[in-house]
Amino acid sequence: MRSRQSVAELGFLRLDGRKKQPLVKQLYESIRRAILQGTLKPSCRLPSSRDLVEQLSVSRTTVVAALDRLVAEGYLQSAQGRGTFVSRDLPEEGPFAETTSGSERPRTADLTIDAAELSPFGQQLELEERMVADRGTPKPFCPGEPALDAFPTDVWSRIVRKVWKTVSPADLSYGEAGGQLGLRRAVADYLRTHRGVECDTRQVMIVNGTQQALDVVTRVVLKPGDQVLFENPGYTSARQTFAKQGAQIVPMTIDAGGAKLDTSVRQACKARLVYVTPSHQYPLGVTMPIERRLEILNWAARSSGWILEDDYDSEYRYGQAPVPCLQGLDRAHRTFYVGSFSKVIFPALGLGYLIVPPGLTAAFEQALRIVSRPASQIDQLVLMEFIRDGHFGRHLRRMRKTHGLRRRVFVEELSERLGKRLQIIGSQAGLHCTALLKSKKTDIRAEQELAAAGILVRSLSAYYCSSTPRAKRQKGLVFGFACATPAQIRRGLAKVAEVL
Amino acid sequence: MRSRQSVAELGFLRLDGRKKQPLVKQLYESIRRAILQGTLKPSCRLPSSRDLVEQLSVSRTTVVAALDRLVAEGYLQSAQGRGTFVSRDLPEEGPFAETTSGSERPRTADLTIDAAELSPFGQQLELEERMVADRGTPKPFCPGEPALDAFPTDVWSRIVRKVWKTVSPADLSYGEAGGQLGLRRAVADYLRTHRGVECDTRQVMIVNGTQQALDVVTRVVLKPGDQVLFENPGYTSARQTFAKQGAQIVPMTIDAGGAKLDTSVRQACKARLVYVTPSHQYPLGVTMPIERRLEILNWAARSSGWILEDDYDSEYRYGQAPVPCLQGLDRAHRTFYVGSFSKVIFPALGLGYLIVPPGLTAAFEQALRIVSRPASQIDQLVLMEFIRDGHFGRHLRRMRKTHGLRRRVFVEELSERLGKRLQIIGSQAGLHCTALLKSKKTDIRAEQELAAAGILVRSLSAYYCSSTPRAKRQKGLVFGFACATPAQIRRGLAKVAEVL
């Protein structure tokens, strides 16, 4: 090691015994900063530790500890008998010589990211920062929110307590991708009995919600440029998932029978996947009859296409039995079936399921291992117990009543107050109600005016593919009636009447 | 509607009042099955409901309810005064006419998926199903597992109870992508103080573990074919994440200073991203000195490349202070910083964090909204409180002691019993210890023999890129010492000594 004449002037070092930070750390930080800023140049010799002890009035232990740490991290080098030097392996000018303070950084506003630095997926994301805030209590009439005020937190938290009382190190450890077998079995049993799903345990993948299920399916089966048949109007988040990954969206018209996969559509495209909500079309609310379902199944079987059945709120049908799902009719094993506990337990739980065709169980377990870690194991245990002990069944029955009542109040009140302006469509199911808007006002305008009055609704025309001309879009409002109490529904609709 | 002469023979209908299933459902199911199997053909007229009541000895209510449901779902059509028919919109031959029973499906083993039906990502996944089982208690010496037996479940579950006592409908609802602002703030504070990370609240993305962070970064910044500089040997799961998405892995040699990003490597490739574990290289355990860190930062700043700093177990350093992270030195904002609560809280929690450059916060919030739903809100609240009330700091200090003791016992015992066969390398840090194997046996063979004896270790040579010739790989074993008690460590190493 070359020795240099220069001995560093360490007058800039200011240690303060009254500070909370230990002196060792203060000394370490100041020398480190001086090196990074170029105040102390490479190969520069430091005063001896004895000199430092004197200059700084600290103990030898403090000096030695700080220097040792700086040596260990490569800032300093020490040579037996020749003292301690700033590492000569560092760049001559000091890495941050150009600025005056080590903590100065370019301002965020000045940072522009060049699109070429991102992937095709990344290039489609917004770069502009907006305000965010933690969400508050769901406002009327936010679609998709269940009656969380009616959730039996006492029962749930009792199970949580019980699980924590008997928790083992194994329960705290890493879980298997795809979810705990016990929960997968419970979900398979439930879906077979109540939804007509045909599956065994391994076909059930526990995911952290519908969105993850949609995303993983997209990644495993769709190539960029592949066509996806999509309901128009349809569930915007799902459309985004496909589109942002490079899929080409082919819109399917929705009529009283749901998505129309007719000959013209089939011939016009070579779609790889069809996305449908047959139990309760989102947002129009219609239920797909059997002949349409068979049409879709035949298309998939003949063209080796895939079906993605999003059964997001099928548990809630009022006055009729739930319609068995499409997946259970699929003898060619082309269907991915997606559901979530967000609407039947609570959204914050972040648990859902994806049923994959039998030949793809290993592939999806592996895919899930790559894209994320399984959802909280403890939550999986709690949910498993909630299902197994019959609480889930009871809760569902109660929620059907609660939601059914809220729907009735909503429909009655709306017909009475707004019957001339809004016409409810769709079946008696789910957590939302779509009403066509009969006025000169656009629904987007209505949404904005209502938002200004503190009422949250979604305009129907916003659910259409961007390629659909304005004139071809139905005008309407999508109301979530489930998260509002009857009193809130009445007050809310009174306001809607005022605004419209 | 055309009427047909034929009236269906419904002799095949068998209703059983002793079954648990309600008679309405039994009747609905049998007619539905008969239609799907082609026993009842399209346009075929059903007996009148009066006849059905007589034939089946059930109430008129039962018959009407079942038929109504079948009409609603599109299986039957009814015409005023002319009776009820099987829908003529169904395919003539019956959708499932080819088989004898509606519940018969092709056997899973017969299902082969054609690679062309999957995406490039999907084509790289295994299709062969293997046994899975829920994991048991972590075995010695499973790498990466903390001392879960020492986790303060009492403190944690007390907070869980408290959170559940005061839970509001807002807490049960959907959360914001990127995580709760309170938790993001707490994580930012912790990382600034303890890890030298430079970030504000919005740069913190709460993810469900390191794996999701790696995956999202890959998707947002890497195009298929992009080169990634990767530590060799290195963390296999991270390599998979890049490789399976089409990135080309460029190996970097690891020496005593960690990854070498030297001129030859830099010139040989146009890498877009470098993946490093500077605090504690995985699996070799070395710590990267400052000049190497600056080299990497300079490379990223000059070439507009990205750095992914995986700081997976940096909190655990025994006898030395933790080394500040690389991200805090990055004045060009090219670093993604990834960490996880798996090793400092517990893995089953499924929470981690990703610190993104300031210009990309909105893009990552949106990306996370697309790829998944936020981790359990309740768990986020519990963790936030655990950090805020000082439990996290206390827990970390205790765990440093516990893990430090286990490491000491492990090192002493190994040196004594196996000093001639195994030579420990790397710094005194983390949850694993890598030892070079001095024997004729390959490390893969040693791993297998140990597994047969109930001891879990990983062979070092398995961490290399597949392009690395066998002869160029170091032979060794990677031991996780943290999940075993001192007694288990002694017993375990006695067995290792026997086997080797």
Description of the molecule:
The structure is a homodimer of 500-residue chains. The first copy, chain A, has 16 helices and 14 strands. With 500 residues, the first copy, chain A, is of the alpha/beta class. The longest helix of chain A has 28 residues, at 391-418. The model of chain A is unreliable at 1-5 and 98-104 (pLDDT under 50).
Ends distance of chain A: 83 Å
Main beta sheet of chain A: strand number and arrangement? 8 strands, mixed
The secondary structure category of chain A is alpha/beta
Amount of beta strand of chain A: 5-15%
Radius of gyration of chain A: 31 Å
How would you summarize the topology of this molecule?
2 copies of one chain form a homodimer.
Chain A lengths: L22 H15 L11 H8 L3 H13 L3 E4 L3 E4 L33 H4 L29 H13 L3 H4 L8 H15 L8 E4 L2 H12 L5 E6 L3 H9 L3 E8 L2 E2 L3 H6 L2 E6 L13 H14 L2 E5 L24 E6 L11 E4 L5 H11 L5 H12 L2 H28 L3 E4 L6 E6 L5 H10 L5 E2 L16 E5 L5 H14 L1
Parallel strand pairs in A: 4-5, 4-7, 7-8, 8-9
Antiparallel strand pairs in A: 1-2, 3-10, 5-6, 9-10, 11-12, 12-14, 13-14
In short:
With 500 residues, chain A is α/β, with parallel strands linked by helices.
Note the main attributes of this structure.
homodimer; 500 residues; alpha/beta; eight-stranded mixed sheet; four-stranded antiparallel sheet; 16 helices; 38% helix; 13% strand; elongated
